[in-house]
Amino acid sequence: MKRILGALVALVALVATVEAHDGGGNDGGDRGRGHDRDEVRFLGGADVKAPLVRCADVTFSAPLAGCGDDPLKRGRIEVNRNGDVAASLVGAAPDVTYDLILGSTNASAQLPIAVLATDAFGNATVRWAAVFDQGQAGIVALTLSRNGSTQFVAGFRGEAELEASLVPCAAINTPATLPGCGADTLKNGKAEIDEGDLKVELNAEANQTYGVVFRGLGGGDDVALGTLSTDKKGKGSLKVRDFVDESVVGAGNVVLQRDGLDQFITGFQSLRKRPAQVARFQVGLLRCADVNTLAPLAGCGFDQLNKGEVIIDDKGDVNVNLMGAVARSTYEIFFVGFDATVEVPVGTLTTNPAGNGHAIVRDFFPVGARGVGQVIIKRDGIDQYVTGFSVAR
C-alpha cells in the first residue's frame, strides 16, 4: 500500500501547484474579514474509530496485563459525536458475552458501557444509541472483557487504522478527569495511525510548539514521536513514517504536550443531549389486609377501599388517589425501599365525606433519582393500603 501511495506523490504535488496558481492562496480576497483573528474555541464533538485487537497481542508501547486468550479474526469499534457506540466482532469466542468498558489512564477508573453477545460463529454487530450524554468525553481506552480478563482493546495494527479526534485534556471527564492538563485552547484536530505511520493535524493557538508522544494503554513511559508547530493561523501538522513496524500491535493515545502539561489527547466527546430515561411508576392500591401473594402481610388495618392509585412521574412528583376510604380521615403516605428497611415520609392525604382524597407532592424525588420500592398508606400509624396488583379472572 505504501508503494502505491508513493507513486502518487508527484501527481499530488503537481495538483497542489496548479491550485496555488489558480488563486488558492487568496492573497487579498479575505483581507479585512478577521479570519486570522477569530478567537480560538473548541468547536466540540469528537469521534473515535479503531480496530479491536487481541489484548494479548499488544506490544506497543508495552504489553498489557490481565489479558485473556480468546480468538479474534477482526473487530471494530466506533464512538461518534452523537454519543452513539458501534462495535463488531468476527471470529471471537462463540456464544459468549463481552463487557464493553471505557477506562481512564492506567485503568485508574472504569465505566461499564454495554454487553456484546456473539453468535455460534463468534460474530457480533451492535449499535447502541446515545450511550454518552452531552459533554461527556473520554480517551481511547475501550476494552472488551470476559471471565475477568481483558480480551480485546481498541488499538491499531497494520492497515487496521486508528483514527481519533483530539480533545482538550481538561475536557476529559468520563469515567474520570485526567491529571496534569494544560489550558491551551483547541478548535479541532485529529490523529491517525496507519501501517506504522502517524499523522497529526491540529487547529489551535497560533505560533505554539507541541511535543507529540504516544502513551500506552497499560501505562509506562511516554514514547516521543516528534514536535508539531502551529503557524500564525494556529494550524500545524506532523507526519512520522514507520514509527513502528507494520506488524506491531499497539494500544493507547496520542498526546500533545506543552509547558510540561498535557494539552490535547485522542478521544471522543458527545455533542448530543441524551434523551431522558422515562420509567413511570403507576400502580394500583390494595388493602393491606387483602394481600395473599406470596404471603399475607402482617400488622395491617382494616380500612375499606373502593380503588386507589399511586403515580410517580418523570418530574419527581408523587400523586396519590383514594376512592371509598374512611371519610374525613387523614392518611400518611410513605415510600418504602425494595428491601423494606427504610420508610420515607412523603406527605399526607385527607378524605372528604365520601371517603375520596387526592394528594400531589411536587418534586419529591430530585432530578436523576432512580428508585425501586413501593408506596404504603397509613392511618394512625397502621398500614392500610399498599401498591400492588389484583388478578380479576
Main features:
2 helices, 17-stranded antiparallel sheet, Immunoglobulin-like, 8-stranded antiparallel sheet, mainly beta, disordered N terminus, single chain, about 400 residues, 27 strands, 2 domains
Shape: elongated
Classify the helix fraction into a percent range: under 10%
For the sheet with most strands, the description reads:
17 strands, antiparallel
| Poorly predicted parts | 3-38
**N-to-C CA distance:** 71 Å
Counting DSSP E segments of at least 2 residues, the number of strands comes to 27
H and E order: HHEEEEEEEEEEEEEEEEEEEEEEEEEEE
Estimate the mean pLDDT confidence: 89
Give the percentage of residues in beta strands: 35-45%
Count of distinct structural domains:
2
Topology, element by element:
Blueprint: H1 2-7, H2 9-24, E1 48-54, E2 74-79, E3 85-90, E4 97-103, E5 110-117, E6 124-128, E7 137-139, E8 142-146, E9 149-154, E10 156-157, E11 162-168, E12 186-194, E13 197-204, E14 209-216, E15 223-229, E16 235-240, E17 249-250, E18 252-258, E19 261-269, E20 281-287, E21 307-312, E22 318-323, E23 330-337, E24 343-350, E25 357-361, E26 373-379, E27 382-388
Antiparallel strand pairs: 1-2, 1-9, 1-11, 2-3, 3-6, 4-5, 4-8, 7-19, 8-9, 10-17, 11-12, 11-19, 12-13, 13-16, 14-15, 14-18, 18-19, 20-21, 20-27, 21-22, 22-25, 23-24, 23-26, 26-27
